[in-house]
Structure formats: structure tokens, C-alpha cells
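Risk register update: the risk of archive-format incompatibility is retired. Evidence:
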Amino acid sequence: MSTSIRLWKNSGTVVAMFVFLFMLTTFFQARLETLLGATVCDVLFFVSLGCMLLMFLFIAWRQRGSPRHQLVYVAMAIWFLVWVALSRDAKRYDFFIGLSITFFTAELIHRVGLSVTQKLKNIQFLRADFKEWLPLRFMRVSIAVVFVTILMYWKPAGEHAERATFAAAGMRSANPGDTPVAKTFTWMKMELPHTAVVAADWSFGSQLNVLAGVKTIIDQDHYIQHWIRLYDEHVHDAIDARETLGFLKTHGVTHLMLTQKQPPEVFLQGELSEAFVPAYPSENFTEARVKVWQIDYPSDIQLNPKYLATELEE
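Archived output:
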């Protein structure tokens, strides 16, 4: 936003307004949908995206005779918008946003460095000989180092060094590796029939399909977001035992797998606790990092079509 205003003045201010709207409907999508509804939020998102692209085309046309480097800013802005728009619905695409973020971060650091050094040169109470001695190049480099250090190691600014280390080391390691989760998959492959349906966090979906040889209800392949929300609401954050069982039965779930962070175990206590039969591990079940239950549904638990909805109802 600041770059567009600096480069293109009035036209840039219009772009900045639509960027702000784009930001609200992308990074604060869930809250806006609660306030305005999903349809209105989507309309505002596409309006902001379309208007920005039209403005960038207009600016590119206006800059035909100007220094060509300004067209690079237009191209980078469009690159950013396209990939952020895609990552709004599938986070996997945000990998490609890094290039444009790096470009505009470098532009910001360069601009701030020039501004600060110029202000230092114009400060009245500094002696003339000190101003002459003041190494501007050293000042600009120091400002750049401070900015980059903040971005790399300060959490509110992104802590990108830690993320990069994780991407280079953690994400390249075999998954699930030699872990309790992997041992659970091996047990499933040996003990459960191929017709078994295991409910688990969506991130385990494909691994359950391939390594455990069982079916799932949420995974990375179909990626039905609303089903993931329903799972989180009725299983991970369960507060009503009957709704949990209704959700699981509607999806044909035969087993439930939970790992490490256990949800409130309200549906494992009280009158319906017998519906959840501990299946794995056979020893030290209460202390296990990975738990699997077989579900024995009470006769009065009914199927409910609302748990099969693929999007939030208005």
C-alpha cells in the first residue's frame, strides 16, 4: 500500500484502498463472514481483487513512457494478489507468496534507509564536521541489518529464520517416521478391515489411507473445509456427546483416533462412555500419546444430513 502511494500518488491511493479491502476479506475472512455473511464477504473479495487488477492495468498503461522499473512493481503486486487469492482457500499456495514479500520488504528497507540518513543529515544541532564525517553507506547498511534481524528473529514480525530452519530441516524428515503415530498405522493395517473408517485430524488423512489402509472422512485429497470445521466443532472441541456420536455415525465412522492434544473428553464420560471402546494401545491406554477407540453406537443415535453439508448454511 505504501509503495503504491509513493509511486503513483492519486492512482496509488485508490489501489491502496482496494488492497486494504482485499486484506480484510482475506486475512480476516472468518470474522467478516460472521458479521456480513459468506456471500457478502466473497463479493467484497472479488470486487477488491477485480478493481485492483484493473487499476494495475491502468497504471501500467499510464507508465508506458516512464522508467521501466515501475512495471516491475506492477508485476510483483499482481503476483502477490494472485497467490494470496489462491491461498485464501488452500493454504498450500502461500509458499509462492515469498517472492513478492521479499521484493516489497527490500523496497521498504531501502526507502526507510534513505529517509533516515537524509533526516540525520538535516538535523540542525549536529555539527557540520560530524555531518560530513557521518558515513551514509554505513548508516544504510546498519538500518538494513536491523530490519532484517527483526524480521528473522522477532516473533510478531514473522520470525522467518525459525520458519526457514523448520522448512529446511523439519519438513524434509520422513513423516510419520518412527513415531507412535507410525506404530498406530501399522497396528491398523494388521488389525482393522479395509472397510474401517477412522476419524482423525485431516492432516493424517492421506497417511491413514496409504499407510494404515483404512478410510477417512477428512483428508488432504478432497479437502472439504466445512467437514473439517464440523470435525473440529463436534470432535476436537466436543461439548455434546450425542452430537459427536451423531456426526461420526452420519459419516460411517467405525474408529476414532486422537493424538497428544486431547479434546475435552466430555463424550467419553457419563452415560455414553460405553460407546467408545478403547482399542489401541492395549497397555497404558490413558497415558498413550496416540489413542484409538472403536465406536459402538447406541441404538438411539440417528443419522443427521446436516453433518454432510459441504458449506456453511446462510
